[in-house]
Each structure stands twice: as C-alpha cells, then as structure tokens.
Amino acid sequence: MKKMKPFSLLILALGLSAAMPTLADNEDYDRALSIAADDAEIDEPKGWAAYTGNVELKQGALEIKCDKLEIFRENDGISKVVASGNPAYFSQKIPKEELKPNQADSLNAEAQTITYQLVTKSIELEGKAQITQGDTLFEGHTIEYQIESRKIIAKSNQAEQESGEENQRVKIVLPVREQ
Question: pLDDT digit string (tens) for 164-174?
C-alpha cells in the first residue's frame, strides 16, 4: 500500500469533513456552563477555576466528562475550558435539521486533553485523540475541529513515528454508503 504524505492526509480530511455537520446549535454558545465535580478551586481575581474528580460539564447539547477541568476567564467572559483525563470525553448532539438521513445524531470525541475554545468555537484534542460520528472516525495524536467551518486537522506524533511506533499515525475510517 502506498504511504500517504501528511499533506495528502490533511487534504483528504478536509474534503471528508464536509460530510460532518456543524456541532452546535448557535444558542448553545450563549448558554451557561453547568459543572458538577467532587472538588472545586476558584480564583476569581485571576479568572481561573479548577474542578477535579468525576467532572461533568454541560452547555446546551454539549457535554464533557473528565478527571480534571480548568476554566479560564477573560474580561468579557469564559474564553476556554481544558479537560484532562485518561481519557477525557466530549459529546454533542447535532441539531435534527442538520442531519442527513440515517446519520448518527451525535458527535463524540476523546483524548487525554480536550481544549474547548469558546471564542474561536473550536475543539483541540491532544494525546490519543479521536472523533467519531456513527461509523466515521478520525484518529491522530492531535486533532483540531473548527466547529463553524467544519474543518478537521489531524496530525500524527512525528517523534513516535520516527521511533518506529505507528499507533499514533493519522487514521480515517469512512463508510462507503450511508447505513
């Protein structure tokens, strides 16, 4: 089998990501974050909060489950949320009007670290990262999903590739037909 160059994989991923719908209902971005955890530490003057132990975050149709969650606030509100775990999980229901016939109604992701950038409306997955929707799968060391443009950028871990380990190369699985 011919080995694809990283640039070729990026082009393939960009073309195929158009099949994935936009993640969130636009109203989700304005909803409050609801967080449940075993412990919390909040430093309002620094604009930082940390939650640990069986953490669950919800914002509309978006849900994150992890071991540790950090929230960073700037002048105009929350700017990013960083979830970590072994792994941390992200899921979001897709609005019915954006679904194609027989398409899975949620997008799921997992990684060792998930950064949800509220300002840029993007999700960055790092460390054994994967995004799935039904039978469609994207895997890599790092994956960035730009929600509004539906752009996916998956990257391998070059250090692991050079050492002979191939488990963190970019992997894409696409169903041939809609089920």
Answer: 555 568 888 88
